[in-house]
Amino acid sequence: MPGGVRCSRAASPVLCPGGWPHSLLELASRCNGFNPPPNQGPDPSLVYRPDVDPDVAKDKGSFRNYTSGPLLDRVLATYKLMHTRQTVDFVRKKHAQFGGFSYKKMTIMEAVDMLDGLVDESDPDVDFPNSFHAFQTAEGIRKAHPDKDWFHLVGLLHDLGKVLALAGEPQWAVVGDTFPVGCRPQASVVFCDSTFQDNPDLQDPLYSTELGMYQPHCGLENVLMSWGHDEYMYQMMKFNKFSLPPEAFYMIRFHSFYPWHTGGDYRQLCSARDLAMLPWVREFNKFDLYTKCPDLPDVDDLRPYYQGLIDKYCPGVLRW
């Protein structure tokens, strides 16, 4: 695309704009300066995730409409803002801003309840509180992996970083698929060819290369990820010394890193440990919130079980 960003490899027909309708390309070119409405929803990336079955999407009506409808403008505008403003400097500032975890003191269950106040206008298919999503994900994992109670808890925890949206953070700095900053975006990053052209890092001779500021196979623990609910929650868990296994931390930090766990990109940054953890992240994503069930769990009935897990792995009042 003229004026766009050249991705690190040939564009995927599933994710990149080359495989999308011409009207979508026109929308991308009009996104500069578009200010999305408030409460545009905590996860607009759901519409464009590569593992969403198109046949299932049709059953959702306009929720996963790839070519028309009011959601398309909103999703594209969110990613345009994200891919323009998520820079090395921005991410480092957010780590400094939130790294002291002085935003709020509360328990895990209080954070779950807090998400009831997060309005998701990008998801008209769901009209129940976000806390139900957490319990649905956790219960799906519990059914499939009854012997791994720590894994059940990860399902409850994984999106709690979205409390950032209730702390006044813009949606483009909280939600959506994540990617490394400090290097050129790879092909399976959503809208990779049409939304990065105004990102100042990509005018930098270092940050605009495939490896960017990193060494080959440096390990994802040494990579600066775009800022959002995944990275925040991962850092918060480390700060508060959650006694969960390493797999849990990987799941939380990288569950929205779709270009890696689903797109197959960024392997040049991965260590052997990252690749060993990849199946765990993929297993978790089978139960992530893009799959929804109309049968709501009895939250009051489930709370004692999950409170027991919280008391075991991350008890008490925590710093957020």
Automatic annotation (TrEMBL):
Its EC number is 1.13.99.1. It holds the Pfam family MIOX. Keywords: Cytoplasm, Iron, Metal-binding, Oxidoreductase, Phosphoprotein. The keyword Phosphoprotein applies. GO terms for molecular function: inositol oxygenase activity; iron ion binding. Its cofactor is Fe cation. The keyword Cell membrane does not apply. Binds 2 iron ions per subunit. Fe cation binds at H133, H158, D159, H229, H255, D288. Substrate binds at R64, D120, E121, S122, K162, G176, D177, H255, S256. It is an enzyme of class 1 (oxidoreductase). One of its GO terms (cellular component) is cytoplasm. It comes from the Eukaryota. It is found in: Cytoplasm. Its main location: cytoplasm. GO terms for biological process: inositol catabolic process. The modification Phosphoserine is found at S68. Pathway: Polyol metabolism; myo-inositol degradation into D-glucuronate; D-glucuronate from myo-inositol: step 1/1. It catalyses: myo-inositol + O2 = D-glucuronate + H2O + H(+). Belongs to the myo-inositol oxygenase family. This is Inositol oxygenase. The gene is MIOX.
